[in-house]
Design goal:
Length: 418
């Protein structure tokens, strides 16, 4: 027997309605906010993620699925969505359209890490990106879109945590302050963070090592070292959130795990996910498009982990509110002529938009009716020689057991089961 790869999951038909509800909510909210769907390749040139995500991040250093194709090119399965969208924004000249460019995606991503609750090697994300939004209100719009999505699904018990990690100007000074702090604990840092100490000390704050995390708790905070422009930007973002009644917590420890972030960063967390409490993470990345070869373009977005979202929804009983699809009618048949008539009626009813079913396993009539019950069909009909001769049959309501005669035309059957 061949099993699924470790860190992957089958999405079974019993769970599909919940996934479809989430995807429908994402599309509806994005349409309301003026965001359009984009679909990018599942694999990209490895250099895209090395440049965009950052070669000092855990994602690039430890977690990417990278391989060489038959042409000798280094290819990577996408570990996240933003870099691909930035690449598409540049390559397809979306910057030439009226700005901002507001995009959303529903994708699968791949990271090689230890599988655990809410963390898989193949996982799914709903995310948005807004390129070219220069107004401070853009940050608040993106955050409120995420909150509106959760609200539409009925998810409760979430917290919004906001921080600013500054711009290249104030980051340069802050990085030097961080180096001086971490050098005092250099001998205790993990091997990866030894490299980060000189290249990008902010990454140490996001390290998953328990020792590095403990050391980072007392490190100087970026929010205390913002330049005047970044401080003003944060204040305006918070003012916009206040204006629409959004509750938030300023959390100086948020740095996000990818190098492209600047200024506003935020997370939405749930107390029902255990240690992996973050269900949504995002922020601003004003230098990403330029880093990938485009013109300077401001950008901001977020990504929501759908597996974690589903865990929350199930814990809150929100999966129980989704009705499972069931047949409108099951047509059972005895004999060859009846079997052909059943096939014809089912085909015609389906063309009318009716969920019609028939037996495909050569069951006895008794077994066919048991099967109709298991499918929870709303109505049933039995066809035999008499029904074919008279061109009439009894249409049975499976809920109350009542029945009525109808002619064997799809039109009349359809009218009586609506």
């Amino acid at each position: 027997m061949i099993n699924k790869p470790r860190g992957t999951e089958d999405i079974l038909p019993s769970d599909s309605p919940l996934w479809q509800k989430i995807e429908a909510a994402a599309r509806e909210v994005c349409d309301t906010f003026g965001y359009r769907e984009i679909r990018t390749p599942v694999f990209e040139d490895t250099a895209l993620f090395q440049r965009g995500v950052g070669d000092t991040t855990d994602v690039v250093q430890k977690e990417m699925y990278t391989f060489e194709d038959k042409g000798g090119r280094s290819i990577t399965l996408r570990p996240e969505g933003t870099a691909s969208l930035a690449r598409s924004f540049i390559e397809n000249s979306l910057y030439a359209d009226p700005q901002p460019t507001k995009l959303y995606y529903l994708i699968s991503c791949y990271r090689y890490e230890k599988p655990q609750s809410g963390r898989l090697r193949e996982f799914h994300q709903f995310g948005i990106e807004c390129f070219g939004g220069t107004a401070d209100a853009t940050d608040a719009e993106v955050i409120t879109l995420a909150l509106s999505f959760f609200e539409k699904l009925g998810v409760t018990g979430l917290k919004l945590n906001v921080n600013s990690i500054g711009c290249p100007v104030c980051k340069q000074e802050y990085n030097q302050i961080l180096r001086e702090y971490f050098r005092q604990h250099q001998e205790k840092l993990c091997e990866t963070c030894h490299t980060r100490l000189e290249k990008n000390p902010m990454r140490i704050i996001d390290c998953k090592s328990e020792i590095c995390s403990a050391i980072a708790q007392d490190a100087p905070k970026m929010i205390d070292h913002l330049c005047p422009d970044c401080k003003e930007h944060l204040d305006k973002t918070l003012r916009y959130l206040d204006s629409v009644g959004v509750d938030y917590i300023i959390d100086p420890s948020i740095v996000r795990g990818l190098d492209y972030y600047t200024r506003t960063v935020f997370e939405i967390t749930s107390d029902q996910l255990g240690a992996q409490s973050t269900v949504c993470g995002g922020g601003r990345y004003n230098g990403l498009v330029e880093e990938l070869g485009g013109k300077p373009t401001e950008g901001i977005g977020f990504a929501i982990g759908l597996e974690r979202l589903i865990m929350i929804m199930k814990s809150q009983g929100l999966d129980q509110e989704i009705p499972q699809s069931r047949p409108d009618i099951f047509i059972a048949a005895i004999g060859d002529d009846a079997d052909v008539t059943a096939q014809t009626l089912v085909y015609q009813l389906r063309k009318m938009g009716c969920r019609a079913e028939r037996d495909l396993c050569n069951r006895s009539i008794k077994a066919q009716m048991k099967y109709a019950n298991k499918l929870n069909a709303a109505y049933s009909m039995v066809l035999g020689d008499d029904e074919i001769t008279n061109q009439k049959a009894e249409l049975k309501n499976m809920a109350d057991g009542t029945s009525k005669p109808v002619s064997l035309t799809a039109e009349e059957i359809f009218q009586n089961i609506q």
